Amino acid sequence: MRWSGVGIDEWWRNEQFWVIGGVSAHLFAVFQGLLKVLAGIDTNFTVTSKASDEDGDSAELYLIKWTTLLIPPTTLRIINLVGVVAGVSYAINSGYQSWGPLFGKLFFAFWVIVHLYPFLKGLMGRQNRTPTIIVVWSVLLASIFSLLWIRVDPFTSRVTGPDVLVCGINC
């Protein structure tokens, strides 16, 4: 950092904005490109003058309709918070041997949560509440992804070999 002239605060803000953009606007840009290429659906936008008044013909174009962009980061934050709680509770119930692998998972989950902190702070806004539709969709998607993760369960092996006690040493 010293050789580039970028302070740690500037670097950290840049990291946060990359994560927030990567899970919201960039993700939707990829979906939009896939829709255009695979399905032939063309999404258009209208370019208007910024000098337009708020009561004019194009006033509706200046309304912010970005709730769909807020759902993926909120879902990601919910999944990570639930993952932290579930991981710690599992480690408490399973004993000492499960704490080692948990630390890496907790580090990654906290890394994501801390990166999304300014997003959550901005989402709360002036009303001190998140729009209900964002909460509903985020909880629904987080539940679906959690259930899929539990069903897939990639960290356990499904292949079981013969038992040495049953067939002896010659299995």
UniProtKB/TrEMBL annotation:
GO biological process terms, semicolon-separated: cell wall organization; cellulose biosynthetic process
Domain of life per record: Eukaryota
Pfam family, any one: Cellulose_synt
Q: Does the keyword Transferase apply?
A: yes
Keywords assigned by UniProt? Cell wall biogenesis/degradation, Glycosyltransferase, Membrane, Transferase, Transmembrane, Transmembrane helix
A cellular component term, taken from the record's GO annotations: endomembrane system
KW Transmembrane (keyword) present:
yes
Query: One GO molecular-function annotation for this sequence?
Result: cellulose synthase (UDP-forming) activity
Intracellular or extracellular location(s): Endomembrane system
Regions that span the bilayer: 16-35, 78-96, 102-120, 132-152
Q: What is this protein called?
A: Cellulose synthase A catalytic subunit 3 [UDP-forming]
- From what organism does this protein derive? Noccaea caerulescens
